[in-house]
Structures are given as structure tokens and as C-alpha cells.
Amino acid sequence: MDEATVTQFIIQSFHDVQTQVKDGVTFFFFGPDRMFPFATLVTCDNAYDSTSNLDRPGIFRLNLGIGKATFHSLFGDSPEGTSHDFTALDLLLPHPFYGKAQWVCVLNPGEATFQARVAPLIAEAYENDVRKKARKGSGVEGDPGQ
Length: 146
Prior knowledge:
This protein has one domain: Aspartate Aminotransferase, domain 1. 30% of the residues lie in helices and 19% in strands. It has helices spanning 3-13, 68-75, 111-135; strands at residues 17-22, 25-30, 39-42, 61-65, 93-94, 103-107.
């Protein structure tokens, strides 16, 4: 899959998704506040993060903020103590910097990985964001399933 296909999936699958693009990063937000994204799609290295070697042609990394229980079911209690190849394609990993905050990442997910593993995690990240904003009384209304 390419980044345009992933972006289109997120925008078309979930209600009231807003995007913002800056410096090779697409941020995905629920609602108009654009404060904290539930997902990001990164297409290039920057001064703060070159761990995934995203400057390779056609390479992108999808990052998702998922729930604690799901994260621990995937990676256990201390993923930062394990070694991961953050340049590997089509492999779900803890985020190289934000794994401690239950963020996961995948570089260039293939169709099978996307459908079986990534799409459900995008839905979880989105739904978690919708619930957080509802608890905070953001005034954003809508059915997350639309």
C-alpha cells in the first residue's frame, strides 16, 4: 500500500477526520480542535527522528496511538528493552520514541497486514480519541461509526 491509499482509508472510514500536513507528516485528528492526533503518517526523516530511514524512496511510516491493553497484548510490558529493526517493512512494531505512550508503527504495510492488523488498530486509535474528547466535553458530536 502507498501513503495515499492509507490516507484515503482513514479519511473515508471514520467520521469527522481532519488532517494537517506539515514537514512530511500528515496528522489525523478527530474533530476540528487539531490538538492531539490519533495517527500520523510520516514520509521523511527529520532532525528528531531518522530511526526508520524514511528518506528511502517510497517509504513511509504509519504511527497509531492505541489502548494500553492492546499495546501490552502485542508487545508485553517493556518493549523498549527489546531490539527492533525500525527500518523493516510491513512489520507492526512499538513506536521507536512513543512506544511508552502506547504508540505503534508500521512501515509500508502490505495489503494483508493492513487488513488483518493495521485497520483494526486505526479504528481503535480513532475510537479512543473520540471517547477522550467526549469525556473532556469538547462539544464535538457525531457517530464514530460513520
